[in-house]
Each structure stands twice: as structure tokens, then as C-alpha cells.
Amino acid sequence: MYYMCYLDESGVQENTGTSHFVLVGLAILAEHWKQYEIQIAQRKRHFGLEDREIHTAWMARRYVEQEQVPGFVGLSWDERRRVAQTKRDEFLIRLSARGTSKQLRAAKLNHRKTRDYIHLTFNERHQLLGELASVIGGWHDARLFAEVTDKQHVYSMPHQYTPFEFSFTELVQRFEYFLRNRGKSVSQNLYGLLIQDNNPTIAHRLTAMMRRFHAQGTRWAAIDHIIETPLFVDSHLTSMVQMADLCGYAIRRFFENNETDLFNRIYSRFDRINASVVGIRHFTASGCTCRVCHDH
Known about the structure:
Elements: E1 2-10, E2 20-29, H1 33-46, H2 56-60, H3 64-67, H4 77-98, H5 101-114, H6 122-137, E3 143-150, H7 151-154, H8 163-186, E4 191-197, H9 200-216, E5 231-233, H10 239-257, H11 261-266, E6 272-273, E7 276-277, E8 280-283, H12 291-295
Helix pairs in contact: 1-6, 4-5
């Protein structure tokens, strides 16, 4: 038996923008992969998103052009796409005449990243995200692992690694501990594989780190149950990386905005030892009273 652990991050690791950086791993049994893929595909199909990538952050925002169309909710999907795209085209024409090049690039990026979802209302998009989070919450053999970094805290101290590298080390250790402990409880040797959204800027560094972990271990653990170095895949083609993206978004929004809906739906999947939640850690100043620090 072996687990496939899909990694994704939410927020930027630089000390700007978001207040937290999150690295999350969604681990599932390989033998259940097909079953879970079908469940995800069924939800996506119901909302007209067959073969489309679920990118939670782009889906969760408001699309102003939808709110400018009277009766948008009552239109068919095709009509919604048509009128929303017309509004977008008109906006780009106006921006080309009166806006800056930076504003135009940002608008084009926003349109490109959200065009697959413009036939769905704000409420429908959030309904789909909620359904997918509930699906993940129902995968009783799956486990979530996450390192949540308060960037104000980490950048106030001397640090050898970037938040991503630090989080990756911690997540690898958690996954290793889970494979050991779970294997003992079922009297089997369990092994795991890490699968990461393809990011050329970090692929070489993570591969080198994992090779070192295999040779020397981390500071706290020998790595005996995670095989190979991370595999890098295209998130557009890999539903489980998209689900890891959803989990990362849910976690970051919980810490930054106290948004609980998506977070509560997946919280039961974080690895536990007895009553302690050990699959997620909030790396912040001492004295934090958040739910995660309380349950850790």
C-alpha cells in the first residue's frame, strides 16, 4: 500500500502581500485514486466545468461584469458567457484608451484566469467549492498535512531557508511520521510519493533537498517511507493538485480572514494522534489561541 501526497501552496513566500504562507499536502491511498477522481469529475460536470481546472482563488472572487447585467442569474449558461464576455471586451477597450499598461495587463490576466467560470454566478462558484471541500472531508482514509507560516513572525528572526523550503521540510517530516504510525497500526509497510504542481523556479531546489533528506534525513527524522524525489505535474491536468489548491486556499483564508466554511469542511482530514491534531501547524509567535494552536 502507498499514499500519493499532492502538494500545493497558497500565498506568496515573500514578506509582502498575504500575511501567511501555506504549504499543504493532500495524501490519498493510490488504490482509491480512481474513485476520488470520479467524484470530483461528477461535481465539475454538474457545473459545466468538464476538463477545466479548479483554481480556487480565481473562482472565489467577484466578477464585476456579472453584477452589471440585469437578470444575469436567470440567463442560460451560454447567454451568461456571451453577455459577460461582451462586458469584458467593452471594459478592455475603455481601459486601452484611458488606463495604464499595468492596469491593462492585470485586467487581461484576470479575464484569462477566470474565463472558464464566467457562466457561473458568485453563489454557484462558492457552492461548487463547498461541495468539493465536503467531498474531501468525506475521504476517511485521506490525510491532510499543512505548514502555516506567519510571515511577520518568520521574517522577524534570522532564517536559513525560505518559507517554502522550511515548510517543505516540516511537511516531509509529518508525512514520514504518518506513514510510520499508520503502517504500524495496520501491520503493513506503507510508502508514500510526493507530487507537486510544476514550478520550474523551485523544482531543482526541492529535488536537491529531497535527495539530501534521503541520504542524511532531516533534523528530526530519517526518511525511510517516502520514495523518490517529488514528481512535478501540470495542475491543469491533475485534479488532486487542484484539490490541494482548494485546501491551501481554505487554510490561508481561515487564518487571514477568519473564513470558516471551507476550512471546517476539511478540518477532520488533518492527521491526528489521539486527541491532538498533528497534521497542521501554525508557525507564529507563542501565545496564539487560534483553533489550530489549541488543538495541536
